[in-house]
């Protein structure tokens, strides 16, 4: 380790040109640089190993076992199932339906969040300080609202009997949570409401960092607003757009509280289930812990794939870790 | 160099709002009616976005008859504290609140300290597996917390942690660490290396530099990071629901909220009042920290 420490930065992903990173270990006493970082890292690594890595291992393990209430209480021995749970899962029509719903719902949330966030970020650059402050404050409020209270408030807003929205739209006692698509639409609205501020603030900061001369030159050349956004701003904002897109995908794929609270645990007859809630219901409502774990593993793999794409995109942009 | 940097620094900061607006106008040469239209729509959108929060607070203050009324009015002429009374009159409400504060507070402090050490290690040192570790911190952020509820449940059971606040603190600590490390990296990096060299030349030990020089400098970043761990812990609903099965005295706020959902008729006044009580601390935290957040991020950007 000490040997590596004294010949640094070689593989650090384009770090070779950075003087500061080279100087680090050269300046410090060689012998100590070897274990000091690990000493600093120790608490974090212990916590992560015990409460993240080990549970992931357990999750994988349980997904290969027969593990129901009988095994939990110790009444029956646990038996190895191999891919039995996965076979049962993939043979179940409901799983595919839930998977499809999860992907479609997450996609709709991501697209809407990004569209709203970007549009409002551009709008923020066009207005004077007061309207901008108003919009920023409102967005911060939505951002800070806990998922569970946001969910209850939105359900109440769309309540068939007492909600102001139905009254305003003249929908009478139309129940939003009764139909499958209207329930998903309601959850989508809440998710977009609480997640667009992150996109808006980040993209707005990105736009502000673009030199004014570039935009001025484009405007002088007679480019339309749309053209400026598409050909000048969007390419310059690409790194930021990648970050917010990936973050949104990961968040919206994992939506749990909103679905659970707003549709009462997955909707009528499970019509609004997404993978996360589905796994939870399988495990804790019907005590099929191994099936729930198998669903968890599927989710983990999907998100891992998204992460790998993210890492590749970051590498391509030459971002140093 | 600094002459170039100062204006951009000012525009990035909070004080640059006005000058930014002016340069924006010059930049785009938007004609007056269009700008007025844009401002009107910005204000309208702000109202729409703020409306759910307004409605929450309003409904919390409405008397019972008006909340459960088919003619929902956007104002009330006779505000009442009845709903709040029902919330606070719950047997253990004060305890729920304290439990929530205790859990979120512990996670914030612990994750800040642990993440600070880890971020220092990965930014100030070059060592084997550094890049691998960084990628692991990134990947760890993607792990679906909810999927791990099942193994964590058994882990907590085996260690006798079910029904204790520790069963909430420990997992949240683990889940907020990777992001905290990732975000703090930028703040630690922003502290000039020359400062570290000067400290060593003056005879400071590594530990002394770490806690007496680096820590205060990175503190704004720690605060900014802690917002995120605070929010994710405070908002937790799943772990509280799953790990605190029988011991009601260990419950946190979300449980106090769910009490008002009843199979026959929801007590909307109570729900909205409890939601308000739960949202206010987060908003306060945001407001308190916002300054630090801006200056901290500004510091990180100037690097």
TrEMBL record, chain A:
<protein>
    <submittedName>
        <fullName>Sugar transporter</fullName>
    </submittedName>
</protein>
<comment type="similarity">
    <text>Belongs to the binding-protein-dependent transport system permease family.</text>
</comment>
<feature type="transmembrane region" description="Helical">
    <location>
        <begin position="257"/>
        <end position="279"/>
    </location>
</feature>
<keyword id="KW-0813">Transport</keyword>
<dbReference type="GO" id="GO:0055085">
    <property type="term" value="P:transmembrane transport"/>
</dbReference>
<dbReference type="InterPro" id="IPR000515">
    <property type="entry name" value="MetI-like"/>
</dbReference>
<feature type="transmembrane region" description="Helical">
    <location>
        <begin position="228"/>
        <end position="251"/>
    </location>
</feature>
<dbReference type="Pfam" id="PF00528">
    <property type="entry name" value="BPD_transp_1"/>
</dbReference>
<feature type="domain" description="ABC transmembrane type-1">
    <location>
        <begin position="99"/>
        <end position="310"/>
    </location>
</feature>
<dbReference type="InterPro" id="IPR035906">
    <property type="entry name" value="MetI-like_sf"/>
</dbReference>
<feature type="transmembrane region" description="Helical">
    <location>
        <begin position="135"/>
        <end position="158"/>
    </location>
</feature>
<feature type="transmembrane region" description="Helical">
    <location>
        <begin position="95"/>
        <end position="123"/>
    </location>
</feature>
<feature type="transmembrane region" description="Helical">
    <location>
        <begin position="38"/>
        <end position="57"/>
    </location>
</feature>
<feature type="region of interest" description="Disordered">
    <location>
        <begin position="1"/>
        <end position="31"/>
    </location>
</feature>
<dbReference type="GO" id="GO:0005886">
    <property type="term" value="C:plasma membrane"/>
</dbReference>
<feature type="transmembrane region" description="Helical">
    <location>
        <begin position="291"/>
        <end position="311"/>
    </location>
</feature>
<feature type="transmembrane region" description="Helical">
    <location>
        <begin position="178"/>
        <end position="207"/>
    </location>
</feature>
<keyword id="KW-0472">Membrane</keyword>
<keyword id="KW-1133">Transmembrane helix</keyword>
<dbReference type="InterPro" id="IPR050809">
    <property type="entry name" value="UgpAE/MalFG_permease"/>
</dbReference>
<keyword id="KW-1003">Cell membrane</keyword>
<keyword id="KW-0812">Transmembrane</keyword>
UniProtKB/TrEMBL annotation, chain B:
<feature type="transmembrane region" description="Helical">
    <location>
        <begin position="36"/>
        <end position="57"/>
    </location>
</feature>
<keyword id="KW-0472">Membrane</keyword>
<protein>
    <submittedName>
        <fullName>Sugar ABC transporter permease</fullName>
    </submittedName>
</protein>
<keyword id="KW-0813">Transport</keyword>
<dbReference type="InterPro" id="IPR035906">
    <property type="entry name" value="MetI-like_sf"/>
</dbReference>
<feature type="transmembrane region" description="Helical">
    <location>
        <begin position="209"/>
        <end position="231"/>
    </location>
</feature>
<feature type="region of interest" description="Disordered">
    <location>
        <begin position="1"/>
        <end position="22"/>
    </location>
</feature>
<comment type="similarity">
    <text>Belongs to the binding-protein-dependent transport system permease family.</text>
</comment>
<dbReference type="GO" id="GO:0005886">
    <property type="term" value="C:plasma membrane"/>
</dbReference>
<keyword id="KW-1133">Transmembrane helix</keyword>
<keyword id="KW-0812">Transmembrane</keyword>
<feature type="domain" description="ABC transmembrane type-1">
    <location>
        <begin position="97"/>
        <end position="289"/>
    </location>
</feature>
<dbReference type="InterPro" id="IPR000515">
    <property type="entry name" value="MetI-like"/>
</dbReference>
<feature type="transmembrane region" description="Helical">
    <location>
        <begin position="168"/>
        <end position="188"/>
    </location>
</feature>
<dbReference type="InterPro" id="IPR050901">
    <property type="entry name" value="BP-dep_ABC_trans_perm"/>
</dbReference>
<keyword id="KW-1003">Cell membrane</keyword>
<feature type="transmembrane region" description="Helical">
    <location>
        <begin position="268"/>
        <end position="289"/>
    </location>
</feature>
<dbReference type="Pfam" id="PF00528">
    <property type="entry name" value="BPD_transp_1"/>
</dbReference>
<feature type="transmembrane region" description="Helical">
    <location>
        <begin position="96"/>
        <end position="121"/>
    </location>
</feature>
<dbReference type="GO" id="GO:0055085">
    <property type="term" value="P:transmembrane transport"/>
</dbReference>
<feature type="transmembrane region" description="Helical">
    <location>
        <begin position="133"/>
        <end position="156"/>
    </location>
</feature>
